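Why run this: before we spend reagent on co-expression, it is cheaper to look at a predicted model of the complex and decide which construct boundaries make sense. The entries below are exactly what would go into the expression plan.
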Amino acid sequence: MDLVKDMDYYIKMKDVNLYYPSTLYNAMTLKQEIFSRMRFEKRKENLEDVHALKNFNLEIHEGERVGIIGHNGAGKSTLLRALAGVYPIKSGSIEMSGEVRSMFDLTLGFDMDSTGRDNIMNRGLMLGSTPSEVRSKEQEIIDFAELGEFIDYPIKAYSSGMLVRLAFAISTSVRGEIMLVDEVLSAGDANFQKKARERMLNIMEQAKILVLVLHDMNTIQAVCNRVVLLQKGEIVADGAPDEIVDQYLGKNG
Amino acid sequence: MKEYWQKIYKTRYFWSHLAKNDLKSRFRRSKLGLLWTVIQPLFLTIILSVVFSTVFRQPLGEYAMYILSGIVVWNLAQASIVGAGNSLFASEQYIRQFNHPITIYTLRYALLSVITFLMELLALILWVLFFKPENLILAFFTLPLTVLLYFPIVWGLTTIAGYSGAKYRDYPQIMALFMQMLYYLSPVFFKQEMFMSNPALKLLFELNPVTHLLNLIRAPFVYMRMPGVIDYLFVIGIDLLVMLWAFYVNRKNEKKIIFYL
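The model came back. Tokens follow.
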């Protein structure tokens, strides 16, 4: 591989179609599967009854901070998960250049019986760091989460506020070139919120590309320089934040 | 293919840490901790061997080693086939967030199974040390290769079980039934001679993979013999078969398994 000095970061989605099942319980039992095979019946897996992204075309380039807005069920979270590679796409293509970091669910993967310190290691490794990287960030995380001596207590002894602060501090200690963020700005009490927001904005500044799903229009307008409005799995508007947010709110009545 | 292995290698800190945590949490809640894993098969062996040496008139010491070796290997098979049905559910929260290879989660479970197996093996080693210490030299000599041959089977079966368990809700029940059947065709505590009375039974016994898997442990530990060439060839065959099968199942289901969790 030759070294490229200025790497070009981008996301290119072309004619993407994504389906998912509305219900899990059309899954068969092993008994049914065996009997239907014995009768040479070919059954079809019914995994595609919701058409979540429809002929989706979207290009995002370096420096863009894209806010995704729309009503519940419009496909915002699905879009992020498709970009993160968690959901498979049925057709079309997604090309990405740059290291992807996703922030979907902050308290994920916490082991309640372990200490805060252990959990920092857990989550750090989960997010793709090496053990020495995590150790070097440990103190900074503890300080930011304002945990002090509690860091060596099992986290089941934490208050919910402490837990959220710890989760937020860990998740935001890992940086990526392409950040996919889903509704994570509301952490802790008012004091911490302010701190959290600053840290979040700082990370977003550093990311080459940001894709943000949020219901809070003020933050969207403050952070993003481009907004995409989704409706039923399709892009209905794409452009400057103020304009699109007005259109969205106007529709709301 | 090569890329896939690289991805598994790249996430090594993550899955090895998960496996380490599984081990820790398995033993955290009891004071006896690790010791319990050793004691459990040991006690079971004492009970069984007292009962069976009376019923079948077997000399107690050697028969106990026979049973213990059987139990230890059987527990590993049980974990890889029945218990592993839960392996993808246990990692659901990670599967929902990252597109790491799914097989790292079955690898996590397979590591746990094999380490538990090695700890249970300690009970057998203690027993052999007590009754036939001279057997241990050959036993330790053959053990590394045995574990090396077991591992792909355990990982492969865990992967197949993980996907099946996620797709079919009745998987554990049906497999428990299947294992019950296999149990009575396997020389776990029945002696080999008991299968020889009937030619059909003998054939089933000889075709049963468990027979050969077990011989890799049993021959050196209990009889101070090298396992037979047939046993090794059989086990290598199972290795290839299970890996190919697991590879196929993984390729077919890796992308869409998220919809079943």
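Chain B touches chain A through 26 residues (CB under 8 Å). Chain B has one domain: 2-260. Bring this page to Monday's planning discussion.
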